[in-house]
Structures are given as C-alpha cells and as structure tokens.
C-alpha cells in the first residue's frame, strides 16, 4: 500500500491565466477612468462658460430661438488657406462680427474693423499674434512652452499693418509711423543694420570742432547732453568724467585764440526780432524746433565760427536746414554779438570751467579713440581722423521673428508671462542698460509712448510676407520732385522745402505751394517775399524775413506763375468775369452771409476781430485770386483734404456774394 502525499502548505501557485486577468482588469479600469476624465474635461472646458454667457446675451438681445439654435456649443475654427493659418479664437470671442456687441465686455465685444478686415479672409492671429490653435486663454494668449509669440498688447498692435499696407501707411497706423520716424531720425540705423535700409549719419560732421565749440562746453556736453539742450537728439552715453575728458581731448587737441564779434548787441537784438528767428529756434523752450534752442549758445560757440556760420551756414554744413540770409557784414557782427552776450549758460561759473579744462588737459587721446570705436560715434557723425567701422550693434533685419530664448533678461527677475519679445524690446529701449551693467547702448530718454512706438516698428521687421492679393498700399508715396534750374537753386538756398511742400516733397509746417501760382496775386507775392506779414496770428512758426533780393524774387514768381498752377482754378476765369464782384449790393449781401448766416468770423479775423482758427482775411482781396476763392468756396477740400473748414454747399449766388465781400477793397475793414 503506497504512502499518502504530505499535506500541502501555503497558497497554491497562481496560474498564468489569472495574472493576465488581473492586468486586463487594471488596464480596463485605467481606460475607463481616462475616458470618464475626458468626458468631464470636455464638459468643463473654460470656453463653455463663455459660450453659455453668449447665449444669454443673445437672448437679452431679443432675437429669439432661431439665432440661439444657430449658436452651437463647441470649438469654432477658421482655416485661412492663403495665410496658412488655423484660428480658433472665435471659440471664446463669439461676438466679433456682431455690431450689437460693440460695447460688450470681452470676450464678446465686436471687432471695430470687422468690415474692412473680414474674418474669413484675415482671421485673428495674422494681425494680433498669439497661438491660433489653442482653446484656453493661457495657451492662446501666451507665452507658453515653446510657443513664444504671445498675443500683441494693444500698444504694439499696429506692427502688423505694414504687412499689407506698406511703409507709406502714415497716419493710418500712427504709432507704427511714429516709431519708424524716431528710429531713423535718432540715428538708430547708424549702429543697427537693417537690410534694404540706407545708413545715414544724422548728426553733424565733426571737423575742426575746436574752431566751433569751447573745450569746456564740449566736456559738459559729452557728460550730459540734455543739461545743455533738453530736447536734443543726442543720447546720453553715461560717460564718466575721465571718459568725457579723453574724447574731448581727441576732438579738440588744442584751441587757438578767440576772435571777437565786434558788433552792437542792441542792433543785433532788433535784427533777431525782425527776422523772426524764433520761428525756427526756441529760447528756453519757447519758439520753433527746426533748429536748436539758443538759450545757452553764448557759452558754446566761438565768435569766429559764429561769424562764418551766420554769413553762409551752407558753406560750413551743406546739409543744414538753415537758409542763407544775405546779411551785410555789419549785420552778421551785430547778430553774433547779441547771441554771444545775451544767451549764456548762467549755471556755469568760472571755477567749473577751470575744472573742466583741467580734466580735458589730463585726458588720454588713445582712450578717447577707443571709446569712440566702442560706442559707435561714427554711426551718426563723420569724425575727422577717425575711421568709420560700420554698424557695431545687433542686426535688426528680422528682429520681429527672434525667439525669446535668444534675448537675455540678465539680472532682472521677470515672471514667465512677461517674458515676451515685445516686453524685452520695450524695456531695452526705455532703459538700454537695464538687463546688464556694462552695456554700450546709450540712453535716449524716450517717453513711454515713444518707446512703445519704436517697439511697434521693430516688431514689424519680420520675414513674413502677405500674399499678393492682400497688398493694399496706403499713404502717400515718396515724391521724386526735384526742382531744377534757377528755381531749384533759389529753393535750395532758402531751404523752402524745410517748411513748405511742393508736389508731395517737403515739410508740412507751412502752406503747400503746389498751386501757389493759381492762388495768389503777383503783386502780393512780390511784396510778401520782401516783407512777410502775418496770415495766421496764433502760430509761433511764421514766415521768416530772408531779405531776398529782387532777382531771386523774380525767379520764384516766374516759376509760380508758369509751373505751380492748376487748370481747375484757371478755368474759372470766365466765371469770375461774369460775376458782379464790384457791385456794392453784392458786397453787402456777402457781408451779411459772412457775419450773420454762416458766422465765418468765428474762425477768421478781419481787422483783428474774429477767431484765429483759420487765416486772417483782412487783406484777402490783395492776396487771393478770385478764381481761387470761387473754387475754395465750392469745396475747401479740393486742395487740402484735411481742411477743418466745413463744406457748406453754398449756392452759386452765395458764392458770388461771399467772393465779392472777401475781395472788395473795403471788405477787410468793415465790421458789423
């Protein structure tokens, strides 16, 4: 009889099938939990609350069930194939195309440009930036993870306008246009390369500066440019006393004897006022801004240089905006004596001057040259004896495309949400040495608004191009007008295009002269050029007294009469001849229209009575041609689209009566 097996102890060994069942059950539970989590996530997405709120707004708008039914729940997406973009922004921004929500809170407010920039063509991110595929605020607005292109703050939003509308967009994108103007006017291009943009030196050439400026002034200028000229375009390089002394010694190694002006300061004062120098130059902040403030010029300039400058500034600096005044020699001496005696820096004493001179005397020329190379002074100035080594700053051709990881925030602690390219650029422009000590970019002391404008322009420098069907140039194209011959020489001599505009070229400070030959009478023009009078009393910038000789006046008048004309005006000669412009009854009716029915004196003066918004009309009959007045009364925006004068739609009879009153010999002297 065999032996029985010993009893089993412990648990039986698990079979392979049981282990697989347990793994399967565990995985099934995980999948079920994940599935339930996804369902819960879909029902708790942040945009669902926005969509529910939007339905409530629709209900309050009183549109009824059909519109509510047409507003489905879920992700909303636009595919703009031409731009290669997919935008889901309207998942939350549900009212962007609905004008009823123009005053609603975000994210339901309607877009102000929905008509001119339809969403089916542009989407959202092409203009606004951000991550179009995202459906949460954090991911869509950014920055997040590797998606560093956060939505653009409204201060920088105009950076996208030039993609379609070009670089002449002007006032259609004023922030962008202002930023571009600042960038080039302040010489940023001198240090920073931008492909396709010409590098111009915006500062004056520094040649034989020892003959122009005093050594002690140059030292103070290098240390603190705004201490002398608060509105200067020269940035502050934050130089130490030693650095300023080294550069000053390099620029003025020695200085000769001072030459006296030998003129009458009192006669110079009268001449200064008669010439209306404050039209271009301010004195202690009051006056024009075409030229530098003269409040401290007596502590800067050497008499010999000032005498030469007043005699012919264009001979010393061909690119200057200052005209030639045709002074007699004694007038030059008198004016120089007045400027040097009257406008001195009263905050500088002789002890300080001595200290400044001693510091420069102990300077180091070699160090001065190294500092000029380091700070890139030749980017703005042509400096005698110093080689221009080209741009010494970072290239900005595609700065709008740069990834945030390539920009260093240095010692500044900044939260993740503020680490964006626009914020870095803005703060770099406001305080160039904020992120790290020892940097070389100077401080321009830009205002918050100007820094935002420059940032907007820089953000527009990208490789992105709009498709050809999106291109719609706006603004005024640069004019190729270039006056030639004797007229061109006169215009260049008196710098007429600094203030005036002719055929799209020139300044906007003074009236456009493109149709001047059709506007004014010959006799008035000749007299005005000899002795300009006031046409707009409230303006600081008035026509300066240039002392133009008869020959130059004849050249100007002949060109105006034969070239700067408009057929729309000249073709009204027959209409003007058919009017009863000299009839007392017609003049009387025009006076009634002027003072009573249309109250023109609210904006215009006659004999010092009336408003000052528009030009003085006291001598309109001597100044204006009747054909011009007729066309202007028909539509004042014919030549000046931004004229503030309303279009009154005068009847033909009223135009005749108003023209008769304005042009009558007594129309400018009678008031009710």
Task: Name the descriptors.
mainly alpha; Immunoglobulin-like; 30 helices; 8 strands; 40% helix; disordered C terminus
Your description of this structure?
There is one protein chain. With 672 residues, this protein is an all-alpha fold. It has 5 domains: 46-151, no CATH class; 170-199 and 391-470, Sandwich (Immunoglobulin-like), CATH 2.60.40.420; 209-379, Cytochrome c-like domain (Cytochrome Bc1 Complex, Chain D, domain 2, Orthogonal Bundle); 485-565, Cytochrome c-like domain (Cytochrome Bc1 Complex, Chain D, domain 2), CATH 1.10.760; 569-663, Cytochrome Bc1 Complex, Chain D, domain 2 (Orthogonal Bundle). The chain has 30 helices and 8 strands. The protein has helices at residues 16-43, 46-60, 65-69, 119-122, 125-128, 137-141, 161-165, 174-185, 215-223, 225-228, 241-251, 265-274, 303-311, 313-316, 329-342, 350-361, 365-375, 421-430, 448-459, 485-494, 496-499, 516-519, 522-530, 550-562, 567-570, 573-577, 584-597, 620-623, 626-634, 652-663, and strands at 78-80, 85-87, 282-283, 286-287, 501-502, 505-506, 605-606, 609-610. The strands form 4 sheets. The protein has a two-stranded antiparallel sheet with strand order 1-2. Strand 1 (78-80) and strand 2 form a beta hairpin. It starts with 15 loop residues before the first helix and ends in a 9-residue tail after the last helix. 31% of the residues are buried. Mean pLDDT is 88; it is low at 1-5 and 667-672.
């Amino acid at each position: 009889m065999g032996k029985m097996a010993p009893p089993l102890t412990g648990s039986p060994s698990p079979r392979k099938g049981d282990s697989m069942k347990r793994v399967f059950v565990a995985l099934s539970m995980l999948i079920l939990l994940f599935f339930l989590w996804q369902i819960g996530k879909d029902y708790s997405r942040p945009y669902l609350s926005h969509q529910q709120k939007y339905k409530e707004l629709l209900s309050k708008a009183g549109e009824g069930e059909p519109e509510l039914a047409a507003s489905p729940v879920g992700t909303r997406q636009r595919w703009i194939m031409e731009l290669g973009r997919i935008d889901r922004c309207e998942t939350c921004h549900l009212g962007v195309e609905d004008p009823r929500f123009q005053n609603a809170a975000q994210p339901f407010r309607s877009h102000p440009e929905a008509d001119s920039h339809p969403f089916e063509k542009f989407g959202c991110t092409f203009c606004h930036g951000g991550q179009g595929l995202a459906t949460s605020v954090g991911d869509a607005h950014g920055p997040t993870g590797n998606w560093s292109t956060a939505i653009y703050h409204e201060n920088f939003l105009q950076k996208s306008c030039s993609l379609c509308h070009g670089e002449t967009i002007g006032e259609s994108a004023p922030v962008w246009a202002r930023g571009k103007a600042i960038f080039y006017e302040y010489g940023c291009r001198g240090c920073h390369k931008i492909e396709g943009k010409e590098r111009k030196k915006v500062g004056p050439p520094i040649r034989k500066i020892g003959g122009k400026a005093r050594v002690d002034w140059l030292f103070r200028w290098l240390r603190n440019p705004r201490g002398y000229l608060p509105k200067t375009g020269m940035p502050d390089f934050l130089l130490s006393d030693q650095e300023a002394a080294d550069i000053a010694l390099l620029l003025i190694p020695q200085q000769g004897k001072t030459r006296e002006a030998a003129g009458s300061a009192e006669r110079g004062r009268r001449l200064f006022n008669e010439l209306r120098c404050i039209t271009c130059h301010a004195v202690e902040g009051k006056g024009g801004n075409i030229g530098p403030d003269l409040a401290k010029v007596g502590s800067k300039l050497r008499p010999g240089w000032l005498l030469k400058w007043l005699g012919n500034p264009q001979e010393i600096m061909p690119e200057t905006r200052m005209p030639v005044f045709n002074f007699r020699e004694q007038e030059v001496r008198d004016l120089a004596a007045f400027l040097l005696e009257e406008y001195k820096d009263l905050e500088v004493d002789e002890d300080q001057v001595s200290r400044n001179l001693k510091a420069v005397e102990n300077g180091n020329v070699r160090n001065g040259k190294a500092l000029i190379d380091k700070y890139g002074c030749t980017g703005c100035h042509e400096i005698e004896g110093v080689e221009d080594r080209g741009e010494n700053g970072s290239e900005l051709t595609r700065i709008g495309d740069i990834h945030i990881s390539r920009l260093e925030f240095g010692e500044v602690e900044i939260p993740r949400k503020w680490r964006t390219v626009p914020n870095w650029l803005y703060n770099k422009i406001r305080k160039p040495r904020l992120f790290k000590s020892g940097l070389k970019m100077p401080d321009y002391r830009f205002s918050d608004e100007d820094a935002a404008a420059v940032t907007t322009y820089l953000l527009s420098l990208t490789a992105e191009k709009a498709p050809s069907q999106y291109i719609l140039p706006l603004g005024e194209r640069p004019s190729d007008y270039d006056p030639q011959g004797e007229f061109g020489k006169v215009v260049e001599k008196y710098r007429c295009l600094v203030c005036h505009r002719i055929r799209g070229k020139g300044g906007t400070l003074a009236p456009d002269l493109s149709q001047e030959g059709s506007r004014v009478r010959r006799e008035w023009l000749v007299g005005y050029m000899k002795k300009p009078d006031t046409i707009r009393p409230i303006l600081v910038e008035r026509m300066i007294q240039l002392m133009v000789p008869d020959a130059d006046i004849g050249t100007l008048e002949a060109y105006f009469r034969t070239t700067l004309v408009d057929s729309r005006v000249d073709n009204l000669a027959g209409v003007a001849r058919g009017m009863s412009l000299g009839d007392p009854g017609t003049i009387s009716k025009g006076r009634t229209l002027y003072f009573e029915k249309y109250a023109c004196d609210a904006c215009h003066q006659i004999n010092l009575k009336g408003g000052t918004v528009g030009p003085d009309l006291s001598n309109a009959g001597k100044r204006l041609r009747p054909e011009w007045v007729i066309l202007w009364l028909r539509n004042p925006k014919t030549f000046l689209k931004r004229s503030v004068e309303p279009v009154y739609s005068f009847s033909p009879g009223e135009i005749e009566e108003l023209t008769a009153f304005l042009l009558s010999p007594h129309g400018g002297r009678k008031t009710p």
